[in-house]
Design a protein that fits this description.
five-stranded mixed sheet; six-stranded mixed sheet; single chain; alpha+beta; extended
Length: 496
C-alpha cells in the first residue's frame, strides 16, 4: 500500500478534511500544528497504512484526547517534588543512532498508589509530547527495566494507557521498546500484551538481557544498574531543552543559533575553514544535499558527499544525520589518506521525501598526526571534542524538477469527506486486561495451593515426630522393664 500512494497528496487531503469539520472539540494549538506541520499529519497516515478514513478518525480522536487530558498545559508545576527529584521515569543516555533513551524502573511502580500513578500518566504524556515537538525530531527508545519486578508492579490500567499513547496518540514516536530482564513469572503477561498489539508496535518490542541490550545502546550510555558505565544523573527534562540534551550524544542543527563546536565554512578560494581552525577536508556539496525523486514514495538516486584531504596527514571522518531511518549512508565512517578523496553515498529511502527538507547531515572530521591502521570506529570513541571540525548540510527534495514543497502547495484544494466511525480500541485493551487478570488469578491460586501443600507437609512432619517420640517412649519403657526383670536374686531382700 505504501509503495502505491502519493504521500504529499494524502497529507493535503487529510489536513483539508480535518480543518473542514467543527474544530471546537480540539485545542487551537493542536489545530495550528495540523495546519502547518506535515510531519504531524504524516504520522497518522503511516500508522493507518495510508488509509485516509482511518487516519482521519485516529487524528480526530487523538486530538480530542489531548484537549481533555490538557496535554498542552502540563508544566513543571503539574508534578510533585518527589517525582521530579527522584524520578523512576526519565531520560538518560542515547541509542546507537542517537535516539534519546527513556527509562522506566518498573519495580518502583506500585499499582495501588493511585495518586502517584496519575502523576506518572501525566509525566509520560509530557515527556513524549515534548520529545515529539522537538525541532530536531528523533524517535525514542523506551527501556522498561523489569529486573526484580513482581505482580504488584504490573498495573493493568497503566498498561492500557501506555498502549493508547504509543498506538493512538503518539504513533510515530517509538523506535524500539526494550523490555529488560523480564522475570519468568511475568513472561506470559507480556506475551499476551505483545500479541494484542498491531504489527508495527509488536515488532518494536524487544526482550533483552544485559548482553542483548548492547545491540541497541552502547555500554557507556547505559546506567550502571543496567550493566552499563553511565554514571550521569537522570536528565531533568523540566530544566533542559531537548536541543541541548541532544548535543550530549548527537549534534543537532539549527537555522539561527550558532553551533557549539567548531563549524566549518567554505572560503572564496574553495577551501574549508572554520571559526577556530581550518578544516582538514574540502567537502562537496558545501551547503545542500539535493535528492531527486519521481514520486514522493519512491527511492531517490544516490547523492554523493565528496571529501578531499588537502593535509599532509591522515584525516578521520564520520557522517551523521538527524533522521538515520530515512537514509542509506555508505560508508558512515572512515580514514582519508593525504591527498586522497573519498565519496560517501547517501540515498533517500522510500516514503521519506515529504519531510526530508527538515533533515540535516553532519560531517565530522579530525586530523591524525600519527599514522593509524586500527579500527577507525574505536578511534572515534577516544577523540577529544575540541579537535573535531564539523560541516553541516541541509536536505532538499526535487520531484519532477520542482521542490516537493511546491507540489504540496498545488494540492491544497483537494479534500476528503469521511463518515466512518472513529476506531475504538477499548475492546482490545479490555481483552488485554481480562487476560492479565486471569493470569494473576491463576498465579494467586497456584500460590494458595502451594501454601496449603506446605501446611499439610508441616502437619505431617509434626505428626511423624510425635509418633516417633511415642515409639521411642514405648521402647524405653520396655527396656526398663527388661532390666528390672534381669536383676539377680541375691541382691533382693532375704527376709522376703
Amino acid at each position: 500500500m505504501e509503495d502505491q500512494v502519493d504521500q504529499e497528496s494524502l497529507i493535503v487531503q487529510l489536513r483539508t478534511a480535518f480543518l473542514q469539520q467543527n474544530l471546537e472539540p480540539f485545542d487551537s494549538r493542536d489545530v495550528s500544528k495540523i495546519r502547518n506541520d506535515d510531519r504531524a499529519v504524516l504520522a497518522y497516515l503511516k500508522n493507518c497504512r495510508f488509509n485516509l478514513e482511518k487516519s482521519f478518525n485516529m487524528m480526530s480522536e487523538s486530538l480530542k484526547w489531548r484537549k481533555s487530558f490538557g496535554v498542552n498545559d502540563i508544566s513543571k508545576t503539574s508534578f510533585s517534588e518527589d517525582l521530579l527529584t527522584d524520578p523512576y521515569l526519565y531520560f538518560k543516555g542515547y541509542g546507537k543512532h542517537g535516539e534519546p533513551l527513556l527509562i522506566w524502573d518498573v519495580r518502583r511502580h506500585k499499582k495501588n498508589n493511585a495518586a502517584v500513578n496519575a502523576e506518572m500518566k501525566k509525566l509520560l504524556a509530557f515527556l513524549l509530547d515534548r520529545r515529539e515537538g522537538a525541532k530536531e525530531y528523533q524517535k525514542v527508545i523506551m527501556l522498561f527495566n523489569m529486573s526484580g519486578c513482581g505482580l504488584s508492579n504490573i498495573d493493568y490500567d497503566f498498561i492500557k494507557y501506555l498502549i493508547s499513547l504509543l498506538t493512538e496518540y503518539y504513533p510515530d514516536i517509538l523506535d524500539n521498546l526494550l523490555v529488560f530482564e523480564m522475570p519468568r513469572l511475568l513472561s506470559a503477561a507480556w506475551t499476551i500484551i505483545k500479541n494484542m498489539l498491531d504489527e508495527d508496535s509488536r515488532d518494536a518490542i524487544k526482550f533483552v538481557n544485559k548482553s542483548e541490550v548492547l545491540e541497541y545502546v552502547e555500554k557507556e550510555q547505559l546506567p550502571i544498574s543496567l550493566g552499563g558505565t553511565n554514571e550521569a544523573a537522570a536528565v531533568n527534562v523540566m530544566e533542559n531543552d531537548f536541543q541541548s540534551l541532544a548535543d550530549k550524544k548527537q549534534v543537532t542543527f539549527t537555522q539561527q543559533s550558532p553551533p557549539r563546536r567548531t563549524t566549518s565554512t567554505t572560503s572564496s578560494d574553495g577551501r574549508n575553514t572554520s571559526d577556530k581552525t581550518m578544516s582538514p577536508l574540502v567537502i562537496t556539496p558545501q551547503e545542500t544535499l539535493t535528492f531527486s525523486v519521481q514520486q514522493s514514495n519512491s527511492e531517490s538516486l544516490p547523492q554523493i558527499i565528496k571529501m578531499s584531504n588537502n593535509r599532509e596527514v591522515q584525516v578521520a571522518y564520520k557522517v551523521k544525520t538527524t533522521a538515520p531511518e530515512h537514509y542509506r549512508v555508505k560508508p558512515t565512517v572512515g580514514l582519508i589518506e593525504p591527498g586522497q578523496d573519498v565519496e560517501v553515498s547517501v540515498q533517500l529511502t522510500p516514503g521519506s521525501a515529504v519531510t526530508a527538507s527538515r533533515d540535516r547531515f553532519l560531517v565530522q572530521c579530525t586530523p591524525i598526526t600519527v599514522p593509524f591502521k586500527g579500527d577507525i570506529t574505536e578511534y572515534w570513541r577516544s577523540v577529544e571534542q575540541g579537535k573535531v571540525t564539523e560541516h553541516r548540510l541541509r536536505c532538499k527534495v526535487v520531484m519532477n524538477g520542482s521542490p516537493i514543497e511546491e507540489k504540496v502547495d498545488h494540492l491544497m484544494n483537494n479534500s476528503l469527506h469521511v463518515t466512518a466511525p472513529a476506531p475504538n480500541v477499548a475492546d482490545r485493551l479490555s481483552a488485554i486486561e481480562n487476560k492479565l487478570k486471569l493470569i494473576e488469578q491463576k498465579t494467586e491460586a497456584t500460590h494458595r495451593q502451594t501454601r496449603n501443600t506446605l501446611l499439610i507437609v508441616q502437619i505431617f512432619l509434626v505428626v511423624s515426630l510425635v509418633y516417633v517420640a511415642y515409639l521411642f517412649y514405648q521402647e524405653y519403657n520396655l527396656l526398663q522393664e527388661s532390666i528390672a526383670a534381669d536383676i539377680p536374686a541375691e541382691h533382693s531382700n532375704p527376709e522376703l
